Amino acid sequence: MKKVAIVGAGYIGRLHADILCNKIENACVTSIMDNVEKKGRDLADKTGAVYYKDFDTMLLKADADVIAVCTPTFLHTEMVIKAAGAKKNIFCEKPLALSVEDAEKMITAVRKNKVHAMAGHVLRFWPVYVKVKEIIDRKELGKPHHIYCERLVAFPDWAESGWNKEEDLGGGGALDVQIHDIDYIISILGKPDFINSQDTYNSVYGGWAHMVTNMGFSDGISGCVQAGWGLPPGFPFTNVLRVVCENGTIEWILRAGKLLEKRGLNSPMVIYKPDGTISKETPDDTDAFRNQWKYFIDCLESESKIKNATFEDGRNALEVVLAAIKSAKKGKTVKIQ
Questions:
Q1: Disulfide: which of 17, 27, 173, 291 matches 229 by Cβ 3.0-4.6 Å?
Q2: Which residues does 266 contact at the CB level (< 8 Å), separation at least 6?
Q3: Distance (Å, rounded) from C-alpha 206 to C-alpha 306?
């Protein structure tokens, strides 16, 4: 049984707490830390955990094997480095940091202190995304030619302090939303050779609010991500995954809810074959956040190396997204090192 301390009792912290308390048999939530006392105590009472208002105090006193960093992005680096120094295993929500340099510092701290760490890139555990990757990896439809991902959402109003409206604190939708699908494409094809992006800049929405990023790979494969949170209130949480292969095309579309509350809706994956036949498959409805935590906790209990959604994966996704933002700012194609 692994004991988890959750740092941040906001929207995503509450989601992780619910998963850990109700869907992971070999883990429990023992501590909640949030500097907004009412919010923190409410979640602590709900989970039967001990509440801490101060992060350093929690690190010193909490009975925990894992620190789950579910705070605003600009707080991740310091908290992860401190948690690693306290010899705690770490789960950190995406984006890992606001700069590649900070991400490297986090990776160095994890390696130095020999703790396990995982980044919250949940698409790697989302059943339909997992299934599509398996089809591509097994070349069931031949070589992939193009991968298109779309992730659109109305501006999230759940950040009480408004940190996500400050570009220097959250990076805007171009970072916070787009990084999901950039990471997914990297998990299949590796990092692109070059990138070209265009975006809508809106300071009301925290900077780069809606971005279209085209990626080129050395073997002629291309990728495209359209993502952002510059949509009006009431616009449904929209996900699209389309892969054009030499022997068919895969497509999956989900439009559901305001954000993640209807993530369990099972929209079928459609495969279009060259002979005109069409097949539909509905992947299992297992919660991706449950799958993510089960993988991490099982690795910890078996003392196995974390191989999926590593901090290195988080750094790579961050590097590419920041290159996309640079491309949009300069109006030029950017090469990836």
A1: 173
A2: 282, 283, 285
A3: 33
38 burial type by CB count under 10 A (0-12 exposed, 13-18 middle, 19+ buried) = exposed
CB atoms within 10 A of CB 79: 21
Rounded CA gap, 321 and 178, in Å?
7
pTM: 0.95
Structure token digits, residue 289: 């956040």
Q: Return phi, psi of residue 231, to 5°.
A: -95, 155
Beta bridge partners of 210: 200, 228
Q: Six-digit token pair at 328?
A: 């949009």
Picking from 95, 198, 215, 76, the residue whose alpha carbon sits closest to that of residue 145 is 215
DSSP class of residue 160?
Answer: T
How confident is the model over 84-120, as pLDDT tens digits? 999 999 999 999 999 999 999 999 999 999 999 999 9
Alpha-carbon gap, residue 270 to 204, rounded angstroms:
37
- Structure token pair of residue 312: 């290195």
Give the other-Cβ count within 10 Å of 330's Cβ: 10
Structural domains in the chain, CATH included, are 2-121+290-303 (3.40.50.720), 123-287+319-335 (3.30.360.10)
Report, as ranges of residue numbers, the positions in the chain whose pLDDT lies below 70.
158-159, 258-265
Nearest Cα neighbor of 93 from 114, 117, 116, 112 is 117
- Residue 138: CB partners within 8 Å, gap ≥ 6? none
